[in-house]
User: Fold this.
Amino acid sequence: MLINNAGLGDNGPFEQADLGRISQMLQVNVVALTELTRLVLPRMRARGRGRIMLVASAAAFQPGPGMAVYYATKAYVLSFGQAIAHELSGSGISVTTLCPGPTETEFAQVAHMEGVALFKGPMPIMSAADVAHRGYQALLRGQRVVITGLVNSVLALSTRFTPTSVLLFIAGRMNASL
Assistant:
C-alpha cells in the first residue's frame, strides 16, 4: 500500500511567486508523487495486488487564481490517478485519488493562507482525522476518486457546468485575503 500524501502550496499572484517555491511545489506535488508511484508498481504487479492513494484536492477540478501552480499540480494528480487507475483495471491494484477541501492542518499557515476566505469564510473545514478516515475507507473499497464532504462534492462536480469565467472569479475571491 502506498499513501502519497505530500503536498505544498503557496498563495499570491503568480508573477510575484518565488521561483524556488514554485520548483518545490512541482517537485513535491508532481515529481515525487509520480516517481514514488512508479517505484512501487513493479512489486505490486509481481504480487498481483496493491493499493495506491494519491492525495489531490478539491482544487483539482478548476483553475485557481492566487494559487495557480498549486491548483495546476493538483489537477495533474487527479488526471494522473484516473489514468493509471484505468491502466491497472483488472490487475489487482487499485488507485484512489483523494480530493479533500479545506482541512485542519498546517497547510494554511505554510501556504500563507491563514487570512484568506477559503479558511476563514463560509466553507466547512474538515478535521484531518475525518478526511483520512474517509480516504482510507474509499481506498479499501477501491474507489477511484473520492471528494470529502458534501459541500466539496457539490462544488467540485458543479465545475463541469459552470463557465470558467465564473470559476475563476469565485476561486480568486476564495484565495484572497479578507
Notes: The beta strands are 2-4, 50-55, 93-99, 103-104, 126-127, 145-147. Helices lie at 19-47, 68-87, 107-110, 117-120, 128-141, 150-158, 164-174. The mean pLDDT is 93. Residues 19 and 120 are 28 Å apart (CA to CA).
